[in-house]
């Protein structure tokens, strides 16, 4: 049996790692660390740091790094993601079969939380079928998955801006930049949290009467924040985002939009 722990590690601040995550790390026989290319070396550097600092005996726990397969950026998006997940599951299966042929515990450090716009759980569901193709003995392999929750970028965003997520008694919609760009403001939500935006999806919205709280590299030492009425600050966010991406080679950002910002927090320009 393979016991796979998907361990949420927060968004870049080692102090956000929970005691449950530390325990799961130390119970693992094998820890797998994905490399996402030189441009995103910060992400694996943090994972390496956590292993060095949080493992009781770093020399005894096997830590294996691997190159994450790339998603095909052409063609149908959902089909490309499906093929990408299958490729990642195959890599996971091969690594587990190579390094834990007799079974054991595997730990994977998941950025943020495995439940929020992360595909680790979907990839893990493919593991058993992928393992059957690794070796003859793997046909009888079973995989059990458990999840250790972590602090999400959405939590850090609201904490750093010192605002609640929702207006009083109002719903919140969590969506992606792709959907915001293609479908506009979702339903009757008073507040919309937008993740996985390749850049400036909010420009597809009528900017009047919408307030935005934006953050990039949340939890990291390079964290950047902006907020204000969308009509006023949208150009500044686009400009800063481009500059940060140029400087660091990659960017992860998230933002909260509200049509009733006074139900969340008084807009900062009221204090100016």
TrEMBL record:
<dbReference type="InterPro" id="IPR035996">
    <property type="entry name" value="4pyrrol_Methylase_sf"/>
</dbReference>
<keyword id="KW-0808">Transferase</keyword>
<dbReference type="Pfam" id="PF00590">
    <property type="entry name" value="TP_methylase"/>
</dbReference>
<comment type="pathway">
    <text>Cofactor biosynthesis; adenosylcobalamin biosynthesis.</text>
</comment>
<dbReference type="InterPro" id="IPR000878">
    <property type="entry name" value="4pyrrol_Mease"/>
</dbReference>
<dbReference type="InterPro" id="IPR012797">
    <property type="entry name" value="CobF"/>
</dbReference>
<feature type="domain" description="Tetrapyrrole methylase">
    <location>
        <begin position="4"/>
        <end position="228"/>
    </location>
</feature>
<keyword id="KW-0489">Methyltransferase</keyword>
<protein>
    <submittedName>
        <fullName>Precorrin-6A synthase (Deacetylating)</fullName>
        <ecNumber>2.1.1.152</ecNumber>
    </submittedName>
</protein>
<dbReference type="InterPro" id="IPR014777">
    <property type="entry name" value="4pyrrole_Mease_sub1"/>
</dbReference>
<dbReference type="GO" id="GO:0032259">
    <property type="term" value="P:methylation"/>
</dbReference>
<dbReference type="InterPro" id="IPR014776">
    <property type="entry name" value="4pyrrole_Mease_sub2"/>
</dbReference>
<keyword id="KW-0169">Cobalamin biosynthesis</keyword>
<dbReference type="GO" id="GO:0043819">
    <property type="term" value="F:precorrin-6A synthase (deacetylating) activity"/>
</dbReference>
<keyword id="KW-0949">S-adenosyl-L-methionine</keyword>
